[in-house]
Amino acid sequence: MLERMSFCSAVGIYRIGSIRQVSVPRLLRVTSPSVRNMAQTVKLNNGYEFPVLGLGTYKSNPGEAEQIVKDAIDIGYRHIDCAKFYENEKEVGAGIRAKIAEGVIKREDIFVTSKLWNTYHAPHMVVPTCKRTLSDLGLDYVNLYLIHWPHAFKEGDVFLPKDSSGNIIYSDVDYVDTWKEMEECVKQGLTKSIGLSNFNSQQIQRGLDIATIKPVVNQVECHPYLNQTKLIEFCREKGIQITAYSPFAGPTSIAPLHKGESPEPLKDPKIKELADKYNKTVAQVILKYLVQLGVVPIPKSSNKKRLLENIDIFDFELRPEDVSVMNSLNRNNRICDFIQVKEHKHYPFNIEY
Ligand SMILES: NC(=O)c1ccc[n+]([C@@H]2O[C@H](COP(=O)([O-])OP(=O)(O)OC[C@H]3O[C@@H](n4cnc5c(N)ncnc54)[C@H](OP(=O)(O)O)[C@@H]3O)[C@@H](O)[C@H]2O)c1
């Protein structure tokens, strides 16, 4: 069934192009209608369908990640966000493959994203690193491969290479040269689509200027305290979908590297008021708000009850006045700022968006 949905908000009207419902897994047929509807997707600029909610896997520890992914797939998640940096792709892949082997899903039913870490930007490293991720996941292809950050670090398997003073060692590699090899990953069938993460508008434009295969996604921090409306609008004009990481401004992000205070939207009294009004939880109101902004949230949870809670958001709609309340909470408070590399020539957060 094809349906078009548009969402109003005080910051403008965002239309999620063509939202589509895909087949409902057997297990979900006995669950609530709202959970069934989580099979909605949005169409990317290359025609592939992208489920509007995904599962984050950062800090899903080896030892728990496989079971979390299995639980998530049983519950109905069809979009898993991974990265080499998370050091758990073997376990995440084992969870996905187990559910394919059990017949719960087919490979084509699930959207898997991975990311190229900063120490592999050198053009000759891109294809081999993507192949290593595929080998770790135990999959023939990923659906989406992202450049994790625009700034490159000294090449190698040490993710945060440091000099004797403890400063991260940079690399000169320009992400536009990395992009050409990301395109090669598509040509070799290693990934269906390619995209960006943590890129600002100028960096996106530089990439678009040389791209022969367009990025489909820019994955960025996005939550009620950093709602990214300007970047969302910029990307919408370019046909690029925003994925919202750290949708709860989650304590699992790389915030420990940041000395400032972490915002805590999950404890926000105004969001709690809305949650009571809609008979939903604060987490559900936040996720629904993000979906209504036109972005694709990827909350992480290692708890089965919260996995269920986080996808049970498709049976209500925030009214425009309540979207305005949510918009009013924005304070451009970035927690995942990677501030220690702010002098890097490709550091993304020295301009407004
Ligand atoms: N591209 C990037 O640079 C980048 C950066 C950061 C994150 N990411 C991606 O985005 C994903 C999500 O971001 P994140 O992990 O930083 O943070 P997040 O999803 O905003 O928050 C996760 C935290 O919230 C808790 N939580 C989850 N559901 C909850 C609920 N319903 N009620 C209360 N607490 C809840 C989790 O605890 P429990 O596990 O105990 O439920 C966990 O502590 C990551 O896993 C990763 O895949 C990407």
From TrEMBL:
Record Gene3D superfamilies: NADP-dependent oxidoreductase domain
Catalytic machinery residues: Y86 (proton donor)
Binding site for substrate: H148
Sequence ranges assigned to domain NADP-dependent oxidoreductase in this UniProt record: 54-330
Protein name: Aldose reductase
Classification via PANTHER family: ALDO/KETO REDUCTASE
Organism: Cryptotermes secundus
GO molecular function terms attached to this record: oxidoreductase activity
Site (Lowers pKa of active site Tyr): K115
